């Protein structure tokens, strides 16, 4: 395993604005002082320049420097299925298109796809992502090379997955990967039962117990569609949230992805147990699943993070676009433009996500936090004039406006060039796959 580290020198990264965290006001003509992998301080450029003897000063005079974005739910290799099957309901989309295609995935395809997903996420300012898929062992090697931070989980099902014969084998793999990556600075493993309806009670329980005993995040798709909600009610006489609650799975280490179909009591229990919800608005709309009651969840005190979901149901991994969407959707739904502010959405994509993962040192640019940052170039027609950088980031910017990305004190994209991979060669390889789609092999 390669461990990419910064060379430990003291850096100053300066910009027109620095947004230290969702809770602090942006700093005009600000800078971030960084030593090794960590932030020393965030403040006005002139003050930090006088205070620290920086070995290198990186100037971005039109740059908006923000904490690196955290995509709290995706299936990265699904970029290979982007546009493969659109405009279908979830069940038909999964059973007739996605599952048969996934059965043809190989380790090599997953590796190539992970490079593509990482390139897309880095270009969009994402520094950390949370992934549930297959062949996560192979993915971890690619993510490591790309220099990103990731929380990876091998999907657990009651039936064979493309990578394993049964849930027992996946649990074995998970145990091994957790121990192999225990001390890795950027790559972590999670425990990922796919959904309550693709896992038996005993598998859910085993996964939940293992995650709890080892202080690992537990990730599951939950209450995504009306069909799931209705079928769970008739099969188990309780809602999907209630079923997990009765199994003892709700809690601060659970990332409940989607949570579109919820009763009032479900929301209360998610709040009481400290469960985090991962909101994936674009995927929920594209699959016609519905709209998660995010403003009610926030009001009840639930920690809400944001994810793109896989590229086959989105169809991109652009967190800035997702943030725009996440801020506007609840306003339209409730006819109240004052709910879910730009600052709250910034929180969902940074600190709330870190909190969901139990990662106390990412999601903010403050002393002692990991130096994970993203820089947006404001000198573009759609980003001027800039009176409020948080507003600009949420409502006006999108992925291609990002020019620089740093993870753990090391630039992985600088001046719009990704430094950790051969992006041109990768795109050529991907283009060659278009002529003979892998699911038709
Ligand atoms: Zn998903």
Features:
441 residues, alpha/beta, Urease, subunit C, domain 1, TIM Barrel, 5-stranded parallel beta sheet, 16 helices, 17 strands, globular, binds zinc ion
Describe the 3D structure.
The chain is an alpha/beta fold and about 450 residues long. It folds into 2 domains: about 10-70 and about 365-420, Urease, subunit C, domain 1 (Roll), CATH 2.30.40; about 70-355, Metal-dependent hydrolases (TIM Barrel). About 35% of the residues lie in helices and about 25% in strands. The protein has 16 helices and 17 strands. An 8-stranded mixed beta sheet has the order 3-2-1-4-14-15-16-17, covered by helices on one side. The protein is globular, with a radius of gyration of 21 Å. The two termini are about 30 Å apart. Residues about 1-5 have low confidence and may be disordered. Zinc ion (ZN) binds near residues 73, 75 and 309.
Quaternary structure type:
single chain
List the ions, cofactors and other small molecules found in this model.
Answer: zinc ion
Major beta sheet, strand line-up: 3-2-1-4-14-15-16-17
From the coordinates shown, what is the CATH architecture of the largest domain? Alpha-Beta Barrel
The tally of strands reads 17
| Tally of DSSP helical segments | 16
Low-confidence stretches: 1-5
| CATH topology assignment of the largest domain | TIM Barrel
Largest sheet composition: 8 strands, mixed
- The share of residues in helices is 25-40%
What is the molecular shape?
Answer: globular
Q: CATH homologous superfamily of the largest domain?
A: Metal-dependent hydrolases
């Amino acid at each position: 395993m390669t461990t990419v580290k910064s060379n430990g020198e003291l850096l100053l990264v300066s910009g027109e604005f620095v947004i230290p965290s969702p809770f602090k006001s942006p700093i005009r003509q600000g800078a971030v002082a960084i030593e090794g992998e960590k932030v020393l301080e965030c403040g006005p450029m002139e003050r930090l320049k006088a205070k620290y003897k920086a070995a290198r000063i990186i100037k971005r005079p039109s740059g908006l420097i923000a904490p690196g974005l955290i995509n709290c739910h995706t299936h990265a290799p699904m970029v290979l299925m982007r546009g493969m099957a659109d405009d279908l309901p979830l069940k038909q989309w999964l059973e007739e298109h996605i599952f048969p295609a996934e059965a043809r995935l190989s380790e090599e395809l997953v590796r190539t796809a992970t490079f593509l997903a990482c390139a897309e996420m880095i270009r969009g300012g994402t520094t950390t992502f949370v992934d549930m898929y297959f062949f996560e062992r192979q993915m971890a090697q690619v993510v490591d090379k790309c220099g990103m931070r990731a929380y990876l989980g091998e999907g657990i099902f009651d039936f064979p997955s493309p990578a394993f014969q049964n849930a027992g084998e996946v649990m074995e793999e998970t145990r091994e990967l957790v121990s192999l990556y225990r001390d890795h600075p950027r790559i972590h493993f999670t425990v990922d039962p796919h959904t309550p309806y693709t896992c038996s009670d005993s598998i859910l329980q085993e996964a939940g117990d293992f995650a709890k005993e080892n202080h690992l995040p537990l990730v599951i798709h939950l209450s995504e569609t009306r069909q799931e909600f209705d079928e769970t009610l008739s099969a188990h006489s309780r809602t999907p949230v209630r079923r997990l609650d009765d199994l003892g799975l709700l809690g601060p280490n659970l990332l409940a992805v989607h949570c579109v179909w919820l009763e009032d009591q479900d929301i209360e229990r998610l709040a009481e147990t400290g469960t985090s919800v991962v909101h994936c608005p674009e995927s929920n709309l594209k699959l016609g699943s519905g709209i998660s009651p995010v403003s009610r969840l926030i009001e009840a005190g639930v920690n809400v993070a944001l994810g793109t979901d896989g590229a086959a149901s989105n169809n991109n991994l652009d967190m800035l676009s997702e943030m725009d969407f996440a801020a506007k959707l609840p306003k339209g739904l409730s006819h109240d433009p004052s709910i879910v502010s730009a600052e709250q959405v910034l929180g969902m994509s940074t600190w709330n996500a870190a909190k969901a993962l139990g990662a106390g040192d990412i999601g903010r640019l403050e002393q002692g936090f990991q130096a994970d940052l993203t820089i947006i170039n404001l000198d573009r027609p759609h980003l001027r004039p800039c009176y409020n950088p948080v507003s600009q980031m949420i409502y006006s910017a999108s992925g291609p406006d990002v020019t620089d990305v740093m993870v753990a004190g090391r630039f992985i994209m600088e001046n719009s060039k990704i430094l950790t991979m051969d992006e041109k060669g990768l795109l050529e390889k991907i283009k060659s796959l278009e002529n003979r789609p892998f699911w038709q092999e």
